[in-house]
Every structure is written in structure tokens, then in C-alpha cells.
Design goal:
2 domains; Aspartate Aminotransferase, domain 1; Aspartate Aminotransferase, domain 2; pyridoxal phosphate binding; alpha/beta; 15% strand; eight-stranded mixed beta sheet; 2-aminoadipate transaminase activity; single chain; binds 4'-deoxy-4'-aminopyridoxal-5'-phosphate; four-stranded antiparallel beta sheet
Length: 394
């Protein structure tokens, strides 16, 4: 007897880097480590008005229990936006509201993964997806990536030689951490393989709308004829994350299961938050609001990339991201990103996330993720200059 935790807890460790990065709360430090939206862009005044309206018009319903599936008017608004922006043809019945897309990732793990099952993902991939899935104890198979997305020859080989693959998890638009976007050809090829093997694809798309230049590419969901793509998205990056509103768009055979899981997890997502967003979309122009975010982030991306071009040694390669929140740098192999971070914190008051933990099976030690959405332009310039000095000194 005594306190005995479940085995899965052995796989849920606090990250050392997260502990180290706690000191970046110190305002002296210029931190590119987070992944936060710019809070100065949050529509605080508008949300005050919206909240008043929601409480005046539907106060009791907004504070009562609600349905697991989510608030129908919001699901209709989401379907309308997806069809306009992501080239899908969905209705509200294809949408379920979740508490942030992170909840969708956890539920996906719960839905599909038995111990020892295989999850295919990009290498590198989103850290908190790794954590969410890891609790269910899968084997991660990392599929190599290049500037156009997953390398299809590698994916093919892995699919042909691996049993128990439960799903393929991808972030095709402005990926976290790499900032890269899949080409149209790669999207088509993935859909072909998905159809051939009849394996679900999880399309995680929090950043797709934050495109700074070029044409938006069709979502995987829009190319899916067999109902195998499970599309997960969120208002966190195009609106504000604190409301914790995300959604899943998928075939009903999946949605029904997600609803069962959600009933056991939290019954439903905050109906006050859902009504607040729905009212905001009803009375304000969300597209114009997103356009403003894009303008601010584009300038920050420009400033970061231009300063990197000017200051970093030529041996450092980095992504010119066309949208989203991140750029990604690859250092010469002998440079250990974790050591560089420690030196940066000790001597330069600048921070970033070493890329190591974005590789579920480890082994890559010379990459960094840099966030530009949460820092004013002049600090980006200063921070990148400091980082360049630390790299040159290494
Ligand atoms: N997926 C990806 C790729 C992300 O980068 C994030 C946020 N950093 C999430 C999911 C989770 O976002 P949220 O739960 O706020 O919707």
C-alpha cells in the first residue's frame, strides 16, 4: 500500500529546460523562448462590451451547464470561416468545441493509443503534442522533414515496414517549432498515402490564418475524400488564448468518440467563453482583427530575419517563415544549443528554446526555436545581436 502513481507518470517528466527558462520572467532578459501571442493586441475593450451583452441578453444560459458538442451558433461561425479560408465544405455538425486545441491532442491520444502503438510525426514536432501523446505510452516514429514538409520517400518506407501505426500527426502550416509550411505536392502525397493505408491524419492548424505573404494553401481536410483527416484548430493565435476555445472538425465516427471522451473529461467547454467569442464574431470584424495581428507579426518576423541575416555567422541556417510565430535555426553540429542557452542566460540576458525537446526520440542538439510574436521590434534587434555574439563566442 502507500502512494503509488500510475506507470504513465514515469513518462510525464518536468522538462529541465522549462525550469531553466523560468528565469526569463526577469524583465532584463530578452526572451524568444515563449510562444505567446502579443497581449497588446488583445481586444480588451471589445471583450468588455461583448461580455456585458452576453450577460444582459443570455446571462443565465451563459452561466449554466451546456452541451458537450458546443454552442451551435459558434460552430456555425467556425464552419463558415473554415469553408472560406481552408477550402473545406463543412457544416456545424462537423464541428465540436474543445477547451483549446491542446485538449484535442490529449483526446486524440486517449482515443487511439494503446501502449506500444506507433505515432508518426514530423521531426521536429510540437513539444506539447509529444507530452500529450506520451501519457498514453506510444512509440514515436519521427519522419524526416525538409522545407516542403515530411519527406514522402521516408514516410512511405516507414508505413510499409511499421505495424500498429495509429495516426500521423502533422502541422502543415507555419509549423511549431520549425516555422515551415508544407507544399501543395506534399499535401497531396500525404493524402494519397493516408488513403492507401487508411490511417487517420491529425491536422493541427493553429497558425494557418497567420500568413504574412503568398497564397494560403488548401488544408488537408479540404482534400480528404475518405473522412480520415481529423482537423484541430483554435482561437488562441487569431484571437486570444485565455478563453481556451478550440475545435475539432472530422467525420462523425470520430466526433462521436471525442464527445464521449469529453464527457468524462470536462463535460463541456466554458459556455461563457463560447458565447463571448460568438458575440465578438457577430458584432465585430474578426478578419480585420486577424489582419492587424498579421501586420504586426510580419514586421517582427522581418526584423528578426533581417537581423539574423546581418549578424549570424554564415554557418547558421534558419527558416524564413511565411507566417505563424516562429523561426528555427540550425547551428553547426558541434554547437550544443543547451550550452549556448546557459551562456546566453549567464552573460547576455537573452533566451530561446533549444530544439532538442521537439524531437521525441532525442538525438538532435544543435537547433533553436525563436519566437518573434511577443517582443517589440527594437528588442528583437537587440536580442538577436546578443545571441549572435554568444554564437560567435562559442
Ligand atoms: N498545437 C500547436 C502546434 C501549438 O503550437 C499550440 C500552442 N502553442 C497548440 C496546439 C495548443 O494551443 P491551444 O490549446 O491554446 O489551442
Amino acid at each position: 500500500m502507500g502512494v503509488a502513481f500510475a506507470k504513465r507518470m514515469e513518462f510525464m517528466k518536468a522538462s529541465e529546460i522549462r525550469e531553466i527558462l523560468k528565469i526569463t520572467e526577469n524583465p532584463e532578459i530578452i526572451s524568444f523562448a515563449g510562444g505567446l501571442p502579443a497581449p497588446e493586441l488583445f481586444p480588451v475593450k471589445e471583450m468588455k462590451h461583448v461580455t456585458e451583452l452576453v450577460l444582459e441578453e443570455n446571462g443565465r444560459q451563459a452561466l449554466q451547464y451546456s452541451t458537450t458538442e458546443g454552442f451551435v451558433p459558434l460552430r456555425r461561425q467556425i464552419a463558415e470561416r473554415m469553408n472560406r479560408k481552408n477550402e473545406t465544405s463543412v457544416t456545424y455538425e462537423d464541428i465540436r468545441i474543445i477547451s483549446g486545441s491542446q485538449q484535442g491532442l490529449d483526446f486524440t491520444g486517449k482515443l487511439f493509443i494503446d501502449e506500444g502503438d506507433v505515432v508518426l510525426c514530423e521531426s521536429p514536432t510540437y513539444l506539447a503534442a509529444i507530452s500529450a501523446f506520451r501519457a498514453y505510452r506510444p512509440v514515436f516514429k519521427e519522419v524526416p522533414t525538409d522545407d516542403d514538409g515530411m519527406v514522402m520517400a521516408d514516410l512511405k518506407k516507414i508505413l510499409a515496414t511499421t505495424n500498429r501505426v495509429k495516426f500521423i500527426y502533422v502541422i502543415p502550416d507555419f509549423q511549431n517549432p520549425s516555422g515551415r509550411t508544407w507544399s501543395l505536392a506534399r499535401r497531396r502525397q500525404l493524402i494519397e498515402l493516408m488513403n492507401e493505408y487508411e490511417i487517420p491524419v491529425i491536422e493541427d492548424n493553429p497558425y494557418g490564418e497567420l500568413r504574412f505573404e503568398g497564397e494560403m494553401l488548401p488544408s488537408l481536410k479540404s482534400m480528404d475524400q475518405k473522412g480520415l483527416v481529423i482537423y484541430i484548430s483554435t482561437f488562441s493565435k487569431i484571437f486570444c488564448p485565455g478563453l481556451r476555445i478550440g475545435w475539432i472538425a472530422a467525420d462523425s465516427r470520430f466526433l462521436d468518440k471525442y464527445v464521449l471522451i469529453k464527457q468524462g473529461a470536462d463535460l463541456h467547454t466554458s459556455i461563457l467563453s463560447q458565447r463571448q467569442i460568438a458575440k465578438f464574431i457577430e458584432i465585430y470584424d474578426l478578419d480585420a482583427f486577424v489582419a492587424n495581428i498579421i501586420n504586426v507579426y510580419r514586421r517582427r518576423r522581418d526584423v528578426m530575419v533581417e537581423t539574423m541575416q546581418a549578424e549570424f555567422p554564415g554557418t547558421v541556417k534558419f527558416t524564413y517563415s511565411q507566417g505563424g510565430l516562429f523561426t528555427w535555426a540550425v547551428l553547426p553540429e558541434r554547437i550544443k544549443a543547451v550550452e549556448l542557452l546557459l551562456n546566453c542566460l549567464r552573460n547576455y540576458n537573452v533566451a530561446f528554446v533549444p530544439g532538442d525537446s521537439f524531437f521525441p526520440n532525442g538525438g538532435v542538439t544543435n537547433t533553436l526555436r525563436l519566437n518573434y510574436s511577443n517582443m517589440p521590434e527594437e528588442k528583437i534587434v537587440e536580442g538577436i545581436k546578443r545571441l549572435a555574439r554568444a554564437i560567435n563566442e562559442y
